[in-house]
């Protein structure tokens, strides 16, 4: 029997049971893909992270949903870095560190700083790729919404993992949204996309759930994932690029909120790098909280 050290980290939060949980497994390069996927299902989390060797960065990690690998993910990145710091694997100088992390989508520059004794992690996501736009009616139909509930044409954006960014006009529309799996499947067929190359639409409203926030979002998920993601750091980077490119925000730095309606409030500090017509990347940062530590035992 082989034992693998792990940390259960709540990401994009400073408190236990907030933000989005992720199990980070160390020394995981010899764990099979089947066992990696099985662990996600066993934990009932959205994703788990596995630390593996890297020939190109200071550390390597791979992220998995219940049914597949995801090339880039925000809350597992915050969780992974928080775990590395908690285990003393990242040396801090004056409470700060900078290093690189190789994930499935490539190499992420990482910055760490201690804030009042808590770990704050900032990742620089890649320059966004802007893809297909869709008729608002196509996306509205997935959620039982009206086309005029959507502020601007939904568009696929990727900073490592592609999401269809959909900005809603009101909080009422965001609260009303319920995923129709049959409608989602029909959309995938007509748009010639699969879950392997396009995640579910990311629903966004301008204005936070708290006075500190500037945006509030939801990501409803299809099986075998959980029905809703508490905080989605990768989609937050895509969303920031979309808002800045299309003039829906008047400054590139803002606070993104998600998860409050699930009882798991999360917050990220976001900064789009570069002018709207030449975005070079997106900084997405948040705190991590180590909730549990232990060993996973596999044959």
Give keywords:
20% helix; 2 domains; Diaminopimelate Epimerase, Chain A, domain 1; single chain; 299 residues; alpha+beta
Protein described:
The chain has 299 residues and is of the alpha+beta class. The protein has two domains: 137 residues, Roll (Diaminopimelate Epimerase, Chain A, domain 1); 153 residues, Diaminopimelate Epimerase, Chain A, domain 1. It is built from six helices and 17 strands. The longest helix is centred in the N-terminal third of the chain and has 13 residues. 48% of the residues are buried.
Strand order of the largest sheet: 1-2-3-4-6-7-8-17
CATH overall fold name of the largest domain:
Diaminopimelate Epimerase, Chain A, domain 1
The gyration radius over C-alpha positions equals: 18 Å
Query: Percentage of helical residues?
Result: 10-25%
Low-pLDDT regions: none
Kindly report the name of the CATH homologous superfamily of the largest domain: Diaminopimelate Epimerase, Chain A, domain 1
**CATH structural architecture of the largest domain:** Roll
Quick check: average pLDDT? 96
Q: Count up the domains.
A: 2
Describe the global form.
Answer: globular
């Amino acid at each position: 029997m082989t034992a693998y050290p792990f940390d259960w980290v709540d990401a994009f939060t400073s408190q236990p049971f907030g933000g989005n949980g992720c199990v980070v497994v160390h020394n995981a390069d010899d764990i099979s893909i089947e066992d990696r996927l099985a662990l996600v299902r066993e934990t009932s989390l959205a994703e788990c992270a596995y630390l593996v060797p890297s020939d190109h960065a200071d550390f390597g990690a791979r992220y998995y949903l219940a049914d597949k690998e995801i090339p880039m993910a925000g809350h597992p990145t915050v969780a992974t870095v928080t775990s590395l710091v908690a285990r003393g694997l990242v040396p801090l100088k004056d409470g700060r560190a900078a290093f690189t992390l190789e994930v499935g989508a490539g190499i992420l520059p990482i910055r760490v700083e201690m804030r009042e004794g808590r770990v704050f992690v900032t990742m620089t996501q890649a320059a966004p790729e802007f893809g297909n736009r869709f008729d608002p009616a196509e996306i509205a139909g997935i959620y039982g919404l009206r086309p005029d509930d959507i502020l601007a044409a939904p568009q696929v954006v990727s900073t490592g993992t592609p999401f269809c960014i959909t900005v809603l006009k009101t909080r009422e529309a965001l609260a009303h949204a319920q995923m129709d799996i049959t409608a989602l499947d029909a959309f995938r067929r007509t748009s010639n996309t699969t879950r392997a190359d396009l995640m579910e639409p990311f629903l966004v409203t301008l204005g936070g759930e708290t006075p500190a926030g500037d945006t509030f979002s939801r990501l409803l998920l299809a099986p075998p994932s959980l029905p809703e993601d508490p905080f989605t750091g990768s989609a937050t980077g895509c969303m920031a690029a979309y808002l800045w490119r299309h003039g829906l925000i008047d400054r590139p730095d803002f606070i993104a909120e998600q998860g409050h309606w699930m009882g798991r409030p999360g917050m990220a500090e976001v900064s789009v790098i570069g002018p709207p017509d030449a975005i070079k990347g997106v900084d997405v940062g948040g705190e991590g909280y180590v909730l549990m530590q232990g060993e996973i035992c596999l044959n």
